[in-house]
Structure formats: structure tokens, C-alpha cells
Amino acid sequence: MIEMPSVSPQFAASARTATTKDAGPASTPTGLPSKAALLSALAPFARPSNAKGLALSLQEYAIYWGAMALVLFAPWTAVKVLASLVAGFKLTAFYTLGHDAGHQTLVANKRLNWWLAQCFAIPAWQNHRLWILDHHLLHHPKTNGEQHDFYKPYSKAEFDRLSKPAQWFERFVRAPNVIGFGVNFMFTWLLATRLFPTKAVPAHLRRSAWLHCISVLLYQAAFVAMLWSAPAWAPVTPGEAIGLGFFLPLSVFAIVTGASLYLMHTNRRLPWFKGTPAREGIYSPTLCAMHMTLPAPLHKFIHNVFAHSAHHAHAGVPVYHLLDAQLHLDRILGDQGLVEPMTVSGAIATMRACKLYDYEKHQWLDFEGVPTAPPINLTARGAHLSH
């Protein structure tokens, strides 16, 4: 069993003090802390630092470009492949740090956050303007809601209305296989919501969205051109340069990021919603995200991304303080929080169970409509749904 690390001493006292501050109603009618109370309780962790954010940014950029240098200049194929895999993992780190900068939390300086968001978003294929629209205006206030969201489950009736190819696709990306994570991330998420602007983008933001899209495409085109020319000045074949410099890192990035996003918001105990429920109490976005526990060094290695319910409770907490904030939140929520160890067997069990969703009974189903988990009894947990 994994032992949960303790909150860092530098935050413990200030967190206790903040919990007692007057931040409006202390709890909702469900007995859960109100949003204002949670914001107050986690406020001591919402302290971006220019020094920490810049150090982390430089570290990840150095590792990524160091890995790319090994892909091009290392004399051994095995080293090139290993470096390519590292570069893919670092693109996932770019996605994470770009996310923090987009929330204005990676560093304390607002303008510097904007520039860092571009520096991380563009190599990770993210249109920053579309990210702001989707992530800030939809995902956070309406987590696991009716809008297009990552791995949003179909109801049985919706699945039955899909074409056969669409049904096959859904079966594939929800089967226990890592490739499905990457395919789903690339085609139903990145290309559908995070790169090319659509008519859904407000008219006054379309020009900006297209400029961000063009920036991403120009960078990627220049990057591929650099790799294509590499055999002329580096000990690498064209196949190695393109395959190990572009396609393998992109594949690793898509698989790892897709798996992470899936596990953050999909679980047999985690609800999804239709309509426009009042997002408070047990329907709060805070309780629609998981805390997947890992040993503290592993949490730090992946920038604490699985301390995710704390991020939804207070989006102003930077990644380097997020685990401390999550542990404090876990103590506040007690049994109401969704906390599970991060294991391969647990992830496979989730993928086997979470195929379709009964939005009326709040229950996960298989593709034949047979329940795979008990109903998520929100009423018994003090919930009340108002439309």
C-alpha cells in the first residue's frame, strides 16, 4: 500500500489558519465545504514563484532539447530511441507547464506567464486561444458536463445511434490498450478542439485563434524541415531523424497525455452529467476529478498532475505546490473526496468498467448496456440536483 506523503511544514500552519478564515458560508446544504471555503483553505498554496517557475521551465526545455540532440548526434541507435522516448515525455511536461502558465500560476508575473504559455503550448500542438476558451470557460465550471470533453461517455441510446465505424472507434479507444489513449487524444481532442478554430469560436476571437493556429503549424513545419535536413550535418538517417525526432515523441506525448486526462476524470465512482445542474455540493467540479496517489518522488517527476481535484478546487495553485494542496484538501473532504492509488491494474479495471454511462441512474455500463459498477448514489451522499 502506498503511504501518502505529509504536507510540507512550510504550508501546514498557514493552511490551518486559512481554513478558519471567514470566506463566506463554511459549507453547502450537503455538508461539504463551500467553494469560498475551499478557496480560502487552499489559498496558502496559491503562491506562484518566478524563481521556481522559471527554473522548472528551463529544466524541462533543457531535457527536451538535450534529448533531441541525442536523437540527432548519438552514435548508437539504442541511445537515439531512448532519447526519443524522453522527448515524448517532455512534450507531456510542456502540456502540463503550458496549462499552468495559461492559468497564470507557473510564475508570479502575468506577462511572463503569457510568454511561457506560448513557449510550451506551441511545441505541444496547443492553440493557446482555443485552450483558454475550452479549458477556462467550459471544462472548469462545467467539469464532466454536457459540453464536448475528453472521453465524455455516450449513453446507451447515443451509442446505438452511432454508425458502425464510430461504434468500432469507441470500442477501440475504451478498450484496455495504451494506443487507444493516443488515437483518441489526437483525433477527438487535439484536432477537434485544440488546434483549428471552428464556427463555435466567438467572432471577435477568431482572428486571434487563427494566428495561434498558424504559429503552431509554422513551428511544426520548421521543426520537421530541420529534422529532414539533419542527415546533411548530423550522424542520422532521414528515417531516424523523422521517426525518432518527430513521430515517436509525438506518439508518446499523445498516449501519456491521453491516459493522464482519462484517469483524471473517469472512474467507476465519478459521475458525469446531462443538462445544467447546479454545480455545487457533490456536483462541484472539485468532486468530479480524481486524486490518484503515487509516492511523492513520482508525483514530483510528473509535476503532480494526478493531484487533480485540488486543481479544480483552486486553479491558482501552481504545480510545484499542488501535492501539498491536494493532501490538505483530502483531509478537508474526508470520505467525500475521490482518492485511489495509481496502479496499472486499477487503470485496466476502470477501462473495463467505464464504457457507457446511464445519466439518469448515474451508473457505468458496458457496450451492451449491462451495469459494470454500482450506481453512484449521489442522493445518499447528500446531493440535491436543481435544473
Characterise the protein shown here.
The chain has 15 helices and four strands. The chain is mainly alpha-helical and 387 residues long. The protein has one domain (9-18, 27-365). The strands form two sheets. A two-stranded parallel sheet has the order 1-2. Strands 3-4 form a two-stranded antiparallel sheet. Helix 1 runs antiparallel to helix 2 (35-42) and helix 3 (50-73) packs antiparallel against helix 4. It is globular. Residues 1-7, 12-29 and 380-387 have low confidence and may be disordered.
Strand content: under 5%
Count the helices. How many?
15
The major sheet is characterized as: 2 strands, parallel
Total strands:
4
How far apart the termini lie comes to: 41 Å
Poorly predicted regions: 1-7, 12-29, 380-387
- The SS-based structural class is mainly alpha
Shape: globular
Overall tally of structural domains: 1
- Mean of all residue-level pLDDT scores: 88
Order of helices and strands: HHHHHHHHHHHEHHHEHEE
